[in-house]
Amino acid sequence: MPSLRTGRPARAAIAGAVVLATIGLTGCGSDGVMHRGSTALEYDGKSASASDLQTAAQQITKAIGSGTITASDVAGVLALEPQLTKLGKANGVVVSDDQVKATYPKVDFTPTALNAMRASTLGSELQNSGALTAATAQELLKDAKVTINPRYGTWVPGKGASAAPQPWISPKPSQQAPVPNGRPAE
Fold this sequence. Notes:
It comes from Flexivirga aerilata. The protein has helices at about 10-20, 50-65, 70-90, 95-105, 110-130, 135-145, and strands at about 40-45, 45-50, 145-150, 155, 160. It is mainly alpha-helical. The longest helix has 20 residues, at about 70-90.
C-alpha cells in the first residue's frame, strides 16, 4: 500500500504499484484542475498545489533519510488517504498526526506532508494487520475520487494511472505552411 518509507522489499513493491496506480487526471473541461492554475491535486474535497506537493516531498525525503520522494509519490499517497482512513477505522487501525510527529521529531511537516505521512503509515499498518491486501487495494483505487494535473499522469478508470508523457504538453500540429517573417504572404 502507499508507503513513503524505504525497506521491506515485498511491501515496497505493493506500495509502489499502488502509488503509481493512484496518480490520475480528470483535468479536461472548463472546471478541471488545469484551469485553476497552481492546483495539482484534488481529493475528497481537499486540494494541494504543486508547491505543496514539492515541499511535502522534500520534507518527507528529509524525514526518512534515504531515497528521494517525488511530488507524484506524495500525490499518489494523498489520493488514497480518504479510503485508507475509512478502512483503518473499520479495522480498528488509526494513525494520528501526533504519532507521525513523534516518529519524525526533527521535521516540522507542512499539513500536506503530515497528511501524506499519516496516510503512508496507516497503509503500512493496515498491510501488517492483514486488512490491506492486493484485492482491497484494487477496491480503494476503484473508489478513489481524484483529480490530478496532467503533469503527474493520466487516469484510466477502473485501472489506475499511467505515467505522464514527457514532455506532458506537446504542440498541436499545424495544417498550414509556415509563414515567412511571421506575416502572411500577400
